Amino acid sequence: MLPQEHIPVLASSFIDALLTDPDGHYVDTTFGRGGHARMLLARLSDKGSLLALDRDPQAIETANMLAKEDSRFQIIHSDFANLEDAISEAGKTNICGIGFDLGVSSPQLDQAERGFSFQYDGPLDMRMNPDAGQPVSERLKKVSEKDLTHIIRSFGDERFAGRMARAILKAVKSTGINTTRELENICFHAVPPKARHGSTHPATRTFQALRIWVNDEYGQIDTAIKAAIHCLAPLGRLAVISFHSGEDRRIRDLIEAEVNPCTCPREFPMCVCGKAASMRWVQKKPIRASESELEENPRSRSAMLRVAERLPEVAS
After folding, report:
1. CATH for 129-214, among 2.60.40.10, 1.10.8.60, 1.10.150.170, 3.30.1330.30?
2. Are the C-beta atoms of 58 and 107 separated by less than 8 Å?
3. Fewest C-beta in 10 Å: which of 14, 21, 65, 149?
């Protein structure tokens, strides 16, 4: 199977939501292969600028080529959890918009050697940055059944999490699990026979959960969203694309905590806790792909875009 061409999801909606001033300074925290970044640069003036981050070395190679072509663009090799330090390092202030395109990119999925997908047989790695940390195959040798069950259930919403964990660790202790196809086969046979041939492959949610786990994606998201809100200028926009319910709920709750921070009981006639809102929703209900985009790019089916704006009265 040939790798699919990389097509950025919700591209027009994402750029329309993020861009409020063509002369402004923006941050793309997930450069990937640069689809969104190039679209944003095309709509910026000569005064505007774009700082991008990514932890994938292959993404950095692509970004470095773009940086040579466009002086308004700058790339930093970094996790987006280090967003605040990256913005400071780049000398950027008055940030008009910060965008996130979460999860794994199409090129990462399509490269067998990265180990993200069971569609291709490759080493069981799944690291966003293959130069840091340990691959999933090594991490599985050190995790307990209780913890693995929690990981698969919490990060993958997998109803057969216990069965998956037991089957995986049994194989790890017996022969080891070194490839994506080996893990896929274990997951397939771990679920009851009646659940093996539904619309979603039995391994899908477990692969998602392990990827989130090995890359600390939820911890990264928590840190980065809070940093982004702090770094935005008055009326600056935060736009976030997520791809599954766990990510989306997390984004919604992190933003909602800044939109409605009051902790006073509902029966109180007025707020006495003194916690003031720092954000307001621009698009609370997620924007989803149109029918035409779904036809062009089926991987956009699960994409959800939420947008919020920094309030002027409390922005620093």
Report:
1. 1.10.150.170
2. yes
3. 65
